[in-house]
Amino acid sequence: MRSSNPYLNNETFGFGTGEASMTLEGVANKTMLLLGICVVTATFSWISMVNDPALGTIFFFIGVIGSLIAAFSMWFINKQYAVYVGPIYAAFEGLVLGPVSGIFESMYSGIILQAIALTFGLFIVMLLIYRARLIAPTENFRIGVASAMGAIFMIYMASFVLALATPYQIPYIHGNGIVGIGFSLIVIVVASLTFVMDFDFIEKGVEQGAPKHLEWYAAFGLMITLVWLYLELLRLLSKLRSR
C-alpha cells in the first residue's frame, strides 16, 4: 500500500498488535473533529486580525511555526501520539488559515464560502469516484501523482526563496492570466487525485486490521490534503475574481 500523501506511507500502519482495529467511521469522526478544532482557532485568529491587525499577525506566525513543528514531528514520533499531535496541529493550522482567509475575504467578498463549498464538493466527488472504482490507484498512478506533488513543492519552494532573496518571482504562475489559472487548475487536480490514494490506503488499512490509534494518524493525513486543496482553491478563485 502506497499513498502520495507523505504522512500515509507504507510504514504508517502496524498490524497484528492485538488492540482494537481502526474503522472507516472512526477515521471520518476524527477527521471531522480535527477540522472542527481548525475552524474554531481560525475563527478566533480571523476576529483577532479584524480587531487588531498586529495581534492577528502574531497569531499567524505562531500558527505557521507551531503547525510546521507539529507536522514534521509526526514523521518521527510513535504514531500512538497522533491523538495529541493531530489536535495540536489542527489548532495551529487554524491560526494560519484565519488571517489568510480574512485577507482573501476582504478583497473578494464571499470567496471563503465558495472555497469551502468547492473543497468539500471535490472531496465528496473524489470519494464517489473512488467508491465507483472509476480511477484505479495503480502503482504507476501513485508514482505519477507523487511526482507531480514533488514538482509542485519544488516550484513553490523556488518561488518562496526568490521572493525572500530577490525582487523577482517565477513569472506567470502567480498571475491571473491563462498560465496562472492553468497552473492553479493543475495543482487542484493533483491535490484532488491525492484523495484516491488516501482512500485506498485507509480502506486497506481497515481491511487488514490496523491498530485503532492510527485513526488519528489517518485523519491527520486527510486533513493536510483538505487544507492544501482549500488554499489552492482560494488562489484560483482570487485569480478568477481579479479578472
Characterise this structure:
There is one protein chain. This protein is mainly alpha-helical and 243 residues long. The chain has one domain. 76% of the residues lie in helices and 0% in strands.
Structural class of the helices, strands and pairings? Answer: mainly alpha
Q: Would you identify the regions where 5 or more consecutive residues have pLDDT less than 50?
A: none
C-alpha-based Rg, rounded: 18 Å
Quick check: average pLDDT?
A: 88
Helical residue percent band? over 70%
- Alpha plus pi helix count: 7
What separation lies between the terminal Cα atoms? 43 Å
Task: Give the overall shape, derived from the CA principal axes.
Answer: globular
- % residues in beta strands: under 5%
Number of strands: 0
Largest sheet: none
Q: How many domains?
A: 1
Strand/helix succession: HHHHHHH
